[in-house]
Amino acid sequence: xxxxxxxxxxxxxxxxxxxxxxxxxxxxxxxxxxxxxxxxxxxxxxxxxxxxxxxxxxxxxxxxxxxxxxxxxxxxxxxxxxxxxxxxxxxxxxxxxxxxxxxxxxxxxxxxxxxxxxxxx
Length: 121
What we know:
Number of helices: 2
Shape: elongated
CATH topology: VC0802-like
Strand content: 25-35%
Low-confidence stretches: none
């Protein structure tokens, strides 16, 4: 499987309202549940009123449109990274999955993924 290392850095944050989100950011991901609103965005686009934020994340994008019936794609990648003692923050969209790791673990993640037969570009 081919994974693309996205060059930009990301911030993870919790916001009180979706009205705070700058949807003009090239990449932003919003998750809303009955308990919270989570946002992944560029560090410069974190709302000033964010309840919490965690900076310094890098993302790998699976470079394929994944059929929704596929099983085990994300779990296989997360298992490789867990075996390498790398924590993840996972995102899924209709088309594909994204795996975020802390910036300081990025090289270690690339090595683990390559060793497991994945191509990181």
